[in-house]
Amino acid sequence: MFRFLLNAIPRPLLIRISYWIRPIVAFFLRGDRYEDPIEGKSYRKFLSYGYEKVRPNVLAPGTLSLERHRLLWLYLQRETDFFTATHRVLHFAPEQAFLNRFRKLKNIQYTTTDLNSPIADVKADICALPFEDNAYDIIICNHVLEHIPDDLQAMRELYRVLAPGGMAILQVPYDEDRSTTFEDDSITDPKERARVFGQYDHVRIYGMDYFTTLASVGFSVEAVDYTTQLSEEEIQRFRLAKGELLPIGRKLV
Predict the structure, then answer these.
(1) CATH architecture observed for domain 68-250
(2) Which carries the bigger pLDDT value, residue 217 or residue 4?
(3) Could you tell me where the beta strands, DSSP code E, fall in 117-210?
């Protein structure tokens, strides 16, 4: 019966499961095969998730984190001083998996922003940010730029508000087999956008030139394959996408 109820929920809407349902789902899926490092709890299985292409066993039931969230958490936890040093942090379209955990950190000055989200601290257009130059030490902007028609202007704004020596984590969905980013402004039908770009509200599909585009606005860019620093056992236990690249942009001056 429980499995039937889960399957009856539209998969894209699972990310919006209310707080009172989430613990119930997590309870029924508890086990010891897979672990969500964000909350440190284990499960016998994760949930399926996806729009055009459904990925099995990727949505952690407790935090509703996906592969990219868990990879970023591990990178921040193991390779940076995000959780210990004093930082001014700007977080775009804050993910539920991170929001409350980041808010509780005493070491960071944490600001969230989004044009439409009711949970964001500041309502702002990423292409015309209301923040001063060099205002933030760390910027987290994940799976946002693929929604923005003028993504180059958005990148310029991200670079402008990042402080010298700062770090911007700028994850996007990308096609590793595509050298050049593809976009077509004539595609406006949501169903056609979903078919071509992978999701109804995406306006492009990034290729591997994404990293050089970030560099073109001033970022010193590193494409970090953090899964190479993890064991095969960890990759499977945390349900990560092996080989997924973390785009890390830095402002050197």
Answers:
(1) 3-Layer(aba) Sandwich (3.40)
(2) 217
(3) 122-123, 136-140, 162-169, 182-183, 204-205
